[in-house]
Amino acid sequence: MYKKNFLSNLIGYKFFSIQNIITGNIIYTNPEAIMQIKKLSSVCVLAACILLGSQFIFSETRLHSVFSDSMVLQRDIKAAIFGFAADGEKITVEIAGQKKETTAKNGKWKILLEPVKAGGPYTLVITSKDGVITLKDILFGDVWLATGQSNMQTDITYYKNKFSELFKDIPGNYKNDKIRFIRVAQKGSDTPMDDFNRDGKFAGGWRICDEESPLAVSAAGYFFSRKLQTEAGVPVGLIHTCVGGTSVSSWVPMEVLASRAEFKEYIDSYNRSLSNYPAAATKFSNDMKEWNEKKAAGTPDLPKAPQEPMGSSHVKRLSALFNGMINPLAEFRIKGAIWYQGEGDAARYAIYRTLFPAMITFWRKLWGQGDFPFIFVQLASYQKMNENPEDTPWARVREAQTAALLLPNTAMAVAIDAGLEKDIHPPFKQLVGERMAAAALKKFYDKKIVAEGPVFKNLKIEGSKAVIVFDNIGSGLEAKAVKLDSYELAGGELRGFSVCGEDKKFYWAKAQIKDNTVEVSASEVSKPAAVRYAWANFPLCNLYNKEGFPAEPFRTDKDEAAGGPINHLAVGKPFVCSAPNPNNAKGTWGGITDGKLDETPAALFATDSSKTFPKTVTIDLQGAFSLSVIRVYSSKSGATKTVDVQISTDGTDFSSAGKSEFKAGEQSVYEIKNIKTKKITHVRLVFPDIWEKVSSYPGFNMIRELEILDK
Q1: Are 531 and 468 in contact, with CB atoms under 8 Å apart?
Q2: What distances in angstroms separate CA 385 from CA 280, 389, 422, 440, 530, one per listed residue?
Q3: Rounded CA gap, 517 and 494, in Å?
């Protein structure tokens, strides 16, 4: 409702910018408001705006902060126009020849447009009893989220200052009015927010790509947008919503963190931080005082300022960035997301293996657009070059990231050749951005191009040699001449392979390309058992296809007894047990879809020990799939006897796909193939009985893993 006091109206409803007022983009039709405006000179209005802030609202009806002049709306689907208003307020939206109406409810309103083809510019007009809001120069195209931590966040200005020679001509005089950017301010919240704050450099909303705007957005996102728009030929909108130094646990809601036993480690760690916060805050205050004194004194080689300790108001606390920077965007229709993150979870690579795909799955569920495209960057090389073959955390994180490719409509840009030993923020963002764009063009725009490098397919042992077969070889394999930080690798000589025998001790290997396979051998290994490639924090490696895409790091030593991880469709998917183990809440006995095969309480799955049968555990695949293989891995612990594997296309009616009886106290695998049912949504294990006499964990139905592969 209009308020008589004009300045109170300005203060009470934050919406329109000074620029809107001056340029007349807003046509305000309330008669009393017009009289008030006439009584004020333009100077007074401007003075009031300066005193009270840069954005105001004249009425209760307003648009969500994602809407502004020069924005991009998602083409070819029912794009949503939405905002806030008093209950019962009638809203009319007009754009692209469409006129639609709705009524506000619970303080919100939303209108779905009929699909519009790529193009524009259009004018968006929103009318309510309070007035008219007019937004101009709107395009329909493809909207992409650019999100993650610092390697997605860091903008071109940072790289121009630090790597001036490499970025001297970027962005240059490049202008493209078919590319638009908006930047979400970094803000955490304990509850899911409906709206976000715009970053200061984007206080007015969306900005057209010119010589200046790319300097203030994600460098990787800019290069992605530039290549994508040029080659796809449609307008591209990029929503920059990133925070450096973050864990994936900041980007998921609490319900995801509470959904699996292994995720509890993040919650426990956060609770410990809260307990330690008073002492940590005191130390931080003292350290900052000392640091500021040194800075004022001009102390040379001063390290970075001390980091604020984790606490209940820290922007990076659990779920805070999801609540403040992702949830507010969920009503806005998008084409997909690009993601660069993982550095912050290197110490928890095993958990990242399931939490990362769980994040992707939840975001897709939240948006309600199905399995929208999700493209991510595999971690670049970083830290000291490994002199000897080692099993390192960053290699494990890369493997965990690769496992997310089992989700539909995902793609990964390999960046193993785009890192620096001593800088976690390498400048090679054009390489990374363009690889993400290539993946998008091939997979989501139907371009007939090579967009990824060689991927391990299988391993054959031939005497003292291991022969590796690859997919995605393009027009052929190549040992490429490359410069990796200060290391120069000659062309024609393959580097980066190691091999082991049955003793599992790895040695650097001699590798050569032969008929588009790679033969690997080492004098120390007479009978190879496993091969690794680019398996290090900072590997020296140079296998590419001739189109210039690097081979994906891999290892073949997935030893079940050693608990080697496996990739499959159900990893990270939620499950429900009819007789849950009471220790699930403590982080144990819930590992049915964690990708791990080791015999530990954290990795095994177990029911309770009651004698009420049958007991069931049901996995929600969160999609409909044609399955090629289902495998049940039994445990040497527990009393599992008979397992009936059932499948369903709706989560309600189940039919048996196969049944097996396991031996007590032995590891074995029951495999089901030739599954004819299509569009399977749920897989259930039914335990009708137990072995009565076992030495380890009697009374419990236990398995190591339920592996599910789609066709």
Answers
A1: yes
A2: 34, 10, 10, 32, 22
A3: 12
Cβ neighbours for 569, distance < 8 A, ≥ 6 positions apart: 406, 621, 625, 627, 708, 709, 710
| Cα 14 versus chain centre, distance | 32
| Three-state SS at 553 | coil
Residue 555: is it exposed, middle or buried by C-beta count within 10 angstroms (0-12/13-18/19+)? buried
The pTM assigned to this predicted structure is: 0.76
- Nearest-CA neighbor of 691 among 659, 658, 663? 663
User: Which residues does 346 contact at the CB level (< 8 Å), separation at least 6?
Assistant: 393, 394, 396, 397
Given the structure tokens 């307990």, which residue do they identify? 275
Mean of all residue pLDDT scores within the chain: 89
Dihedral sign of CA atoms 270, 272, 277, 283 in order = negative
CA distances (Å), 675 to each of 296, 551, 593, 603, in order?
71, 33, 20, 27
Q: Which amino acid is at 711?
A: K
C-alpha span between 452 and 376 (Å, rounded): 13
Residue 429 identity (one-letter amino acid): K
| 431, 450 contact by CB (below 8 A) | no
pLDDT digits (tens, 9 = 90+) for 267-290: 999 999 999 999 999 999 999 999
Nearest residue to 563 (alpha-carbon basis) of 633, 507, 500, 499: 633
Q: Report pLDDT digits (tens) over 283-325.
A: 999 999 999 999 999 999 899 899 999 999 999 999 999 999 9
| Structure letter (DSSP) for residue 458 | E
Distance CA 453, CA 451 (A): 7
Shortest CA distance to 136 belongs to which of 81, 83, 74, 67? 67
288: tokens are 């900052």
Mind listing the pLDDT tens digit for each residue in 360-386? Answer: 999 999 999 999 999 999 999 999 998
| Token duo for residue 18 | 């000074």
Q: How far is Cα 296 from Cα 531, in angstroms, rounded to an integer?
A: 54
Element (H, E) at 393: helix 393-403
In the chain, what are the domains? 1-59 (no CATH), 455-555 (no CATH), 575-710 (2.60.120.260)
